Amino acid sequence: MVRGETGFWMGGRQAYAEAVQFVAPAPEPPSGPWLAVIRAVLDAMPGPAALLVPVRDPSGRLIDLEYVATTPGAVLGDGRLGRELIGTRMAEEFPGTAASDRWAAYARVLETGEPTETGPFQHGEGRWRVRAHRVEGALLMTWERLDLSQEAGQRIASTERLGNLGWAEWDLVSGETRWSEQLYRIFERDPALGAMTPVETDALVFPEDRPDRDLSLLSLQRGESVDVTFRVLLHGRVKHLRAVADVVRDTAGTPLRYFGIVQDVTALEQSTQRLADVESQLAEQGRSLAAEHALAARLQQVILPVPPEPLDLPGLKVAVRYLPASQEDLVGGDWYHAAAMSDGSVLLAVGDVAGHGTQAATTMAQLRYSLRALAVTTRDPAVLLGHLNRLLCDLSEESRNPETTATAIVARYDPARRRLTWAQAGHPPPLLSRAGRTATLPRPSGPMLGVVENAVYEAAVLDLAFGDLLLCYTDGLVEHRRNGPDDGLASVIRSVDEAVAAAPGRPLGELLSRLRQANPDDDTCMLAVRPISDQTRDLRRYVLGR
Q1: If you write DSSP's letter for every residue of 479-503 in order, what string do you get?
Q2: How far apart are CA 178 and CA 197, in angstroms?
């Protein structure tokens, strides 16, 4: 930087406006699907974050950073919020940045790709910390005001005490384990001793409960979220603990850290409403923490993670395929859920939020998280749909958007009896292939979600036999823009029959390789289910051509 430029950086917005046209030419803004995807993701995320593109002088030296995408919660010291920041530059808001060590740190991130954290530093009346990552040649930044984080920490601590829960994070790279204060109370451990190691906590678990806990750890290592309840012996007393955990991976799929929430449920006497409130707070905290980790790993994973191989769940093998509408519009409202529950059953769901874009993706995420949280309150899929319907009606009222609607199928599978209990909300009927013949299942009654506030949903029961194949899907599979849904459904039924006939021993992989979306303007999500026994052959290598 030549002599005299320091005064420009330190002189405030007036000096910036007068000088920027000479030293900071406008950068070439990113465009196309890449920027559209990142903007859609940031629009749906909580907390402050922004994507900034570098502004360079003719020699290539970094002289400024320009905001091109932000989260709705991105706010700076002068009160500008969200998209009001787009098109502005860092020197305009932080005139002293270029003369600080932070500027060199940001330049290193752009040059090397190594993320960095700066702060705390003083700006205005607050103290701040900033994290920066390189994304496609731009700078992805998240920040927090430290003097406000204490108040937020107090709110989280109050939530933990209310629900008698605490959180833990295990960094697999550094080996460091972090516990919240409440978790030390739950384990009756002196914080001065530090968090327990995984070996120490394993030693407290009852021997009878270790197999279930070990299975949950294996699921976590495969990238699946887990929910398990087990007993521990602490100072001669038995405690029942419920753990909800998730794993964060890098872009290569390597686990980076485990994050879990542990709740002491020994004397749980809360009402259903109290439990729903706690689960909502848990989900919100988990979303906020997972959002920052996911940005550092891979932005695309935030939209809809789809397992590349079939899931082995109790008594079932489940395969999932998701087909986006187009490369230009990757953010849609189709979703699925498939997970083992702590009682040994399996929760399955497929849904479709009306529309595309940020609103549909945000609503999709809210429905998925809410289903997972509410599933601990009831085994009845019809009751779960009733809860989701009231949630969507409330969301429509809050956003004043009566067009917020969705369809869904929710099912619970009992592997001991091979019994599937399911309910639907205005969704296309599942297809059952049995003995070489495929047909639609009669749908129990139930309107779309978000239309009738006090809607009542009915449940149906289906006993599955070995050799059966059940396919749940969204309407993009059968509704063609030129043909009616009956024509599309008939084509799908033929594909199912042909797949089962061609590969009766491995129909899941054959089926998903044959099915294609009927409507290229709509997303498609498919969930194929097959009951298995201990002797059923592993079919993972047949899926998607493997």
Answers
A1: --SSS-HHHHHHHHHHHHHHHHHH-
A2: 10
> 517-529 burial, b for 16+ CB within 10 Å, e for fewer?
bbbeebbbbbbbb
Give, in order, the Cα–Cα distances in Å from 541 to each of 119, 371, 537.
48, 30, 11
Q: What's the CA angle centered on 458, arms 452 and 463, to 5 degrees?
A: 150
Neighbouring residues of 501: CB distance < 8 A, sequence distance ≥ 6? 436
Contacts of 534 (CB under 8 A, 6+ apart): none
Could you say which residues of the chain have pLDDT below 70? 1-32, 76-80, 124-125, 147-163, 251, 267-304, 325-332, 357-358, 399-403, 480-486, 505, 516-521, 534-546
Interhelix angle for 358-374 vs 33-43, to 10°?
Answer: 50
Residue type, 387: H
Helix axis angle, 272-297 to 358-374, nearest 10°: 130
Strand duo 406-414 + 62-70: pairing? unpaired
**What pLDDT score was predicted for residue 3?**
31
Query: Which pLDDT belongs to residue 177?
Result: 85
Six-digit token string for 513 = 């390789």
Start-to-end CA distance of the chain, whole Å, equals 56
Question: What token pair was written down for 297?
Answer: 């790993």
For residue 291, the tally of other CB atoms under 10 A from its CB is 19
Taking alpha carbons only, the member of 507, 515, 478 closest to residue 322 is: 515
Q: Is the separation of the CB atoms in 353 and 406 below 8 Å?
A: yes
> Smallest Cα–Cα separation from 274: which of 154, 159, 386?
159
Helix (H) or strand (E) holding 221: helix 210-221
Phi–psi pair at 243, nearest 5 degrees = -120, 130
CB atoms inside a 10 Å sphere around CB 403: 10
Other beta carbons less than 10 A from residue 52's beta carbon: 24
pLDDT at 327: 47
Rounded Cα distance between 451 and 405, Å, is 7
SS3 28: coil
Instruction: Give the whole-angstrom CA distance, residue 134 versus residue 249.
Output: 17
Phi first, then psi, for residue 76 (nearest 5°) are -110, 180
Rounded to 5 degrees, what are φ and ψ at 254?
-80, 130
